[in-house]
Amino acid sequence: MQRSLAAFKEYGKTPPTQRAAFLEQIAAQLESRREALVATAHEESRLPLPRLNGELTRTTNQLKMFARLVREGSWVEASIDKGDKDIRKMLVPLGPVVVFGASNFPFAFSTAGGDTASALAAGASVVVKGHSAHARTSEAVFGAVLDAIRESGVPEHTVQHVLGPGSTTGKALVMHPHTTGVGFTGSFSGGRALMRYAAERERPVPVFAEMSSINPVVLLPDTLHKNTAALVKTFAASITLGMGQFCTNPGLLLALESPALEVFLQQLGAEVSQAQAHDMLHSGIADSYAEGVKDMLDQEGIAVVQRGTGVIAKVAAAVFLRNPHFREEVFGPFSLMVVCKDKTEMTAVLENVKGQLTGTVMATEKDLEDHSDIIALQATLAGRVIINDAPTGVEVCNSMVHGGPFPATSDARFTSVGATAIKRWVRPVCFQGFPGHLLPEELQDGNPRKIWRLVNEQWLNT
Amino acid sequence: MQRSLAAFKEYGKTPPTQRAAFLEQIAAQLESRREALVATAHEESRLPLPRLNGELTRTTNQLKMFARLVREGSWVEASIDKGDKDIRKMLVPLGPVVVFGASNFPFAFSTAGGDTASALAAGASVVVKGHSAHARTSEAVFGAVLDAIRESGVPEHTVQHVLGPGSTTGKALVMHPHTTGVGFTGSFSGGRALMRYAAERERPVPVFAEMSSINPVVLLPDTLHKNTAALVKTFAASITLGMGQFCTNPGLLLALESPALEVFLQQLGAEVSQAQAHDMLHSGIADSYAEGVKDMLDQEGIAVVQRGTGVIAKVAAAVFLRNPHFREEVFGPFSLMVVCKDKTEMTAVLENVKGQLTGTVMATEKDLEDHSDIIALQATLAGRVIINDAPTGVEVCNSMVHGGPFPATSDARFTSVGATAIKRWVRPVCFQGFPGHLLPEELQDGNPRKIWRLVNEQWLNT
Predict the structure, then answer these.
(1) Are the beta carbons of B119 and B113 closer than 8 angstroms?
(2) What is the ipTM of this complex?
(3) Is residue B210 annotated as part of the catalytic site, yes or no?
(4) Do residue B364 and residue B427 come from a single domain?
(5) pTM for this one?
(6) What CATH number is attached to the domain comprising B126?
């Protein structure tokens, strides 16, 4: 952390062009060793090769997106007020930050993943704690980052890499006085522990933990009746994708009782049980999944629809509402259908789930007309509300929100995917009465960087 | 809090025009009872009438500024990406929030002050806990808010008002499951307690506590020599303004040892001791101030320059660096000059103070040339860096940052003064695959509100 602070003091001042080139250089270094990286990740994570190739592409695209963002420059929220006093403001990096690798995304949420890319784009230095489930992948990715550091001429310790248990190494990193922020994607217990450590520090720091979500999907009656086969196909694929090891996996389904629902459930069960299986990420996750399924199926009033590659179960809304255990996440290809007698029960179920990453509504136009309140309710629960698509498959773009009310994440005000993820690693600083040459370029008269700025309450890029 | 949640469900959906009119109506109601409000606040707070009149004007101006912001509408950070998928995003209000009145600003940081105004602008409902030191003022302001609620047709419980001790009533409000955010301006111990309560909740919520700051001022040698009289006048006024009861009071001065410094200190002492005195806000603050001064002057190596209406003391940098007590705030008209042998000591002192609201540098052009590193250092400590002006006097504008690294505030990423204070009470929500008529107006095609939006990485207001 001391080296990270020393690196930050230089790196935080690098011009945007150099920072962007560094991000692009990391992407290029990763690309140049794609085959080896994907092979190592496959050995360690058991994830299929096409998935890992796609994930690596997403990872390099993320790096390039942040490079574009930094080069364009308007993200700093520059603002100028010239009244009696000359007051200007922009975002500056926090300092050294700690990023925890995630077990379920060896590339996109790990060593050079979204947390690292957004932190580096912001001008923060990064210490990565690699995940033990893919330690060799993490080290190989870090090797690519080190080469990018050398090629780009940024300080040697701009990014550092350590391995070790979360409860000791991870805790020590979070508690270190030089640490100014933390990024984490993983379990609820792990994220909640980091939140506690950070809150107990002499100087508390923000923790961005993406932790758990059951991603409720409401299947409205008209579409369930008319589009049964298509819905079965979409959700069987979404539930079993990557053996259900996605944060946005649809773990909770809601529908009104009807003959169409019974048909849907039978077909979904059949499809899910026959899906192509592969090993889970590591034995710890496989054990947790087996235990989670067992605990869930032990609850009173639950019925198994079918079990195979994945497990589909159902429960009456009245039973769901009495037992908080049904609100818990089973990380893996498990999904629970809550059968509701009427819209009142459906509303009650949604009002009783916790904060979510996503909320989905499957609907025909007629359904949407009849259920606008259900859509509004989903927006109060989740960071992303989806109509007529599966929640899995998170686009990396400006408008993405991969975040949501606790316990989906530690802080619903931020996203860990998409361009605005950069906002987690910055704070505003106001410069009052500064002579022009002492101002950052972004705030100088004449707008040398031609960025969008709020000047006396007007948006201008001139 | 239950009533607040019910009100939020309606108020959070009010159109911007109605929300803006409501804020303007509060301002009008306050203006219409100015004389009575100022008289009551004077009785309770002992603050001079001109100050209170000015503060009430600031308060109504804040309300009007937020009305403009809401009416203009671009603050919601609308963003649209139309690729394979249709993904849109904007900020939405968090829910019911709790605002604590501040003892030192009966209007601007209390019942209808900046926290309340920014929360209402965001679409949050508010429960105010009035400060016991000006309970009647708080109730009278709340009366004005109630009339504005009736006039504007917003839900009856959009704003509510309670009185009671922080340790019971305040804690209960922060811990209530419906609470989604907290605004506080006050002591470090009070703010830190609220942070702990919020972190211990089953569902943690953000706390924006503005707590303590000694606002270091560096007086550089050339200006100290050339502009002694002007500096004495500026800082004697700033130190004693409102009996030093401002969060941005300059409690720590730094200068290199020199004959000019001795002249400055003698004149500053004389000026401060002769300043017009008035009673402090309440007996608790007066007692704390007396104790704080006594504790400080009991420290080894400190010397009193002069005491009267205010107290000026001095200490050698080497002594300051050995004793952490010198970094603590004495809330009131107290200022400690740290006499530095050289720039290295000056840098060491700055590196050893905690997070600050403001950092100030007084300098000629020559000074600035010789000390750009000192200015850069101030920017790492504080939310606002000022060149050649006193830190007291916080302009309410877009570019203001009234915030800073812990313990100045609980969260350096936000400000409690200025237009961006609204960002404390919102979170982003992503709308994916929504048919146009179900989207919020801000995200609809054709941009009916004509706000600035980021559309496929381009800023457009059409």
Answers:
(1) no
(2) 0.96
(3) yes
(4) no
(5) 0.96
(6) 3.40.605.10
